[in-house]
Amino acid sequence: MNNNEINEPENLSFYSFNTVDSLLTLSINTIATDKWKDYASLSILPASIKNRILRVLCKRGCLTIEAMSALLSSDVQDLNLSECVVTNDHLKLIAKCKRIYNLNMNRGRYQNHLFTTEELMGLIPKMPHLTQLFTEGNESITDEVIDLLSSSCHKLTTLDVGNCPLTDKAAASIAKLEHLMSLNLSNTKVSDAGVFSITNGACGKRLFEIKMNNCKLITDNAIRSVAENCPCIEILVCHGCPKLTGKCELILTRLLSKRNVKHLTYTVF
């Protein structure tokens, strides 16, 4: 064999190759930390890059008012603040996102949001294109907020208001959302009357997912109303509702046996 020859390996599967992040990705990960201070200098960046930095900051829970002010543009359509502490100042900045359709302000595991009901009610009319809203665990979500939401955000398809201080008054407002398909009412004060409003309202025929975990006021009659009036129901979850009895199981077995139900869980007391 000629000593100058270089033999290529026939099978490269024996070799491992490490991928290297692009310079852009490395730069974004460096900027999107709580140690970066000069956010004002980022305002000149293209919107696509600012949006990437914004998403990383949100995911890391490092979104300060200064960062949000520099990075948020009117073109932002999807904003997940579930890992951030959201204040009134954050809501004021969200108001300039005229095209936003998905807003996630679920309470994270380690923080509580600090915005007020009044500031939220000022924001809601400015989001006419909103289709998905997640506000689980927020004390500022009241019956009045839901009433305003139903009259301002007609395109809503997904609403998560679990663990919020809501009553049947809020349920009556939710019933008006004709495009609503997914609803979480877990751990609220909604009773049978509220469920009746929803299942017989404008959204009843479209709903395919309802979660009512730990709703202490609902009875078998509420479950019957869902089964009879929501023909598209695919997901029904009602764990920990102490007024449900063995009749609930009979209702669900009879009325939903021929439906295309994908997920059904409940607790019988």
TrEMBL record:
GO CC, any one term: SCF ubiquitin ligase complex
What InterPro entries has UniProt attached to this entry?
A: FBXL15_LRR, Leu-rich_rpt_Cys-con_subtyp, LRR_dom_sf
Q: Which residues form the F-box/LRR-repeat protein 15-like leucin rich repeat domain?
A: 94-227
Q: Which residues form a coiled coil?
A: none
Query: Which GO BP terms, alphabetically?
Result: SCF-dependent proteasomal ubiquitin-dependent protein catabolic process
**What name does UniProt use for this protein?**
F-box/LRR-repeat protein 15-like leucin rich repeat domain-containing protein
In which organism is this protein found? Laodelphax striatellus (Small brown planthopper)
